[in-house]
Amino acid sequence: MKTRNKVQTAAAGLAVVLALSACGGSATGGTATGDSRTSNTADISEGVQPDPAAVKLLPQSYKDKGELTVAMDLHYPPTTFLAEDNTTPIGLNPDVARLVAKKLDLKLKFVDTKFDTIVPGLDGGRFDFTATTMSKTEERLQVLDMIDYFRAGNSVAAAAGNPQNLTVETLCGKNIAVTQGSTGQLKRLPALNEQTCTSKGQPAINAVTLPNVQEALTQLHSKRIDGVLYDTTSLGWAEKQQPGSFTILGRVNVGSNDVTAIGVKKGSALTPALQAAVQSVLKTPEYKESLETWGLESGAITDAKLN
Question: CA-CA distances (angstroms) from residue 136 to 31, 122, 183?
Answer without folding.
Answer: 39, 15, 9
